Amino acid sequence: MAEVVEVLVPGGKATAGPPLGPALGPLGINVKAVVDEINKKTASFNGMQVPVRVEVDEKKNFTISVGIPPTTALIMKEAGVEKGSGEPNTNIVGDLSLESAVTIAKMKLDDMLSYDLKNAVKEVIGTCVSLGITVSGKKPKEMLKEIDAGNHDAVLVG
């Protein structure tokens, strides 16, 4: 019976401390080897929280699969923002291009509730509302209305 450990780690900077160490220690595997492998696989997500799944079989062999960071982390990285706005309706902290929203939606499409790209992009833009980030210089809700009106179908139908 394989043991499975699922954790969120900082991209490229996982350590043997919590949450990894305490979860992996009792399984009797080389924690440092697992941490090194995770850091290698998550280096491209530097500065973001990345979901990681570690499977350990009966022979103490481990398999690591790396997920895609949360939508908010991807939006903040694309917009060049450290953290979201404390007052999203009043303070705007950054801007995300519609093309970047499409890219993020394509990355996350398998994990989203949406069935098509257009609705996935609308989910990403909806996340921008709570972060205080505009989309192509417009308030996210205005951009959603434009998408519903079909103004951006050339970019969104793919």
Q: How would the blueprint of this fold be written?
A:
Layout: E1 3-10, H1 20-24, H2 31-42, E2 49-56, E3 62-66, H3 71-79, E4 94-96, H4 98-108, H5 117-131, E5 133-135, H6 140-148, H7 153-156
Parallel strand pairs: 4-5
Antiparallel strand pairs: 1-2, 2-3
Helix pairs in contact: 3-4, 3-5, 4-5, 5-6
Task: Kindly describe this structure.
Helix content is 41%, strand content 17%. It is α+β, with helices and mostly antiparallel strands and 158 residues long. The chain has two domains: 3-66, 2-Layer Sandwich (Ribosomal protein L11, N-terminal domain), CATH 3.30.1550; 71-155, Arc Repressor Mutant, subunit A. The strands form two sheets. It has a three-stranded antiparallel beta sheet with strand order 1-2-3. Strands 4-5 form a two-stranded parallel ribbon. The longest helix has 15 residues, at 117-131. The chain is elongated. It holds the Pfam family Ribosomal_L11_N.
Mean pLDDT: 91
CATH class of the largest domain: Mainly Alpha
The assigned structural class equals alpha+beta
Strand content is 15-25%
Order of neighbouring strands in the sheet with most strands? 1-2-3
Number of domains: 2
Tally of helical segments: 7
Q: Which geometry do the CA atoms define?
A: elongated
Tell me how many strands there are: 5
Helical content stands at 40-55%
CATH homologous superfamily classification of the largest domain: Ribosomal protein L11/L12, C-terminal domain
Distance between the termini: 42 Å
> Which CATH architecture of the largest domain is right?
Orthogonal Bundle
Main beta-sheet strand count, sense and barrel state = 3 strands, antiparallel
Task: Examine the coordinates and then state which fold CATH places here, giving the name of the CATH topology of the largest domain.
Answer: Arc Repressor Mutant, subunit A
Weakly predicted, low-confidence segments: none
The whole-angstrom Rg is: 19 Å
**SSE string:** EHHEEHEHHEHH
